[in-house]
Amino acid sequence: MNGGSLRRIEQAKSCFAALGNIAIRSQFGGYGLLADDTMFAVITEGELYLRATESLETAFRERGMVNMTYLKRGVPMVMRYYWVNEELWQQRRELCALAWQALCETRKEIKVKKRCNGRLKDLPNIDASLERQLWRAGICNIYDFRLLGARDSYLKLLQQQKNLGMKVLMSLAGAMAGYHHAALPNLQREALTEWFENNALFPSFEARSEDRACGPHL
Question: GO annotations under biological process (predicted)?
Fold first, then answer.
């Protein structure tokens, strides 16, 4: 541990003591800062970066905070961690408030992901066969599925298997809503039918996320 990071860690522990039991662990070539086992910040090369969820990024950027960049196998990756400059360090009360927000929003995000990381076949209309098709399309769990939505998930399936019928689309929409596809409201069925005729028969879709293989999370 270099001297700059060591001093910053001690400074952060003192500043954020009210957030809970502060601990550190190796992370991103530096040190993750955890409050009661939830990581809310990173210290690397003597600098502190607060973790931002989607709901916090705009506020952090409006403050002029910039993203941390992490080199992974020589490739720079922009991370959802935002630099705390010396001016903000001098405003301890405000810095603690931002760290508290980062911690609370991170905990909320973790809870959502835990709820959504179940097996796809636990949803209505999705049997083991359709689950395997979704895996091959890179949709590994309920979180991925909800992130894409029924229509884009269907288009990703089309990239793997042509000539999928409308029933699969209805099944995905029902799974998203939490009930059998036969129970979809008529207005929603009509909208899906129109979309299917206009889009799914002649798809032009680029995957939003990186292609990946996945399987059951045991």
Answer: establishment of competence for transformation
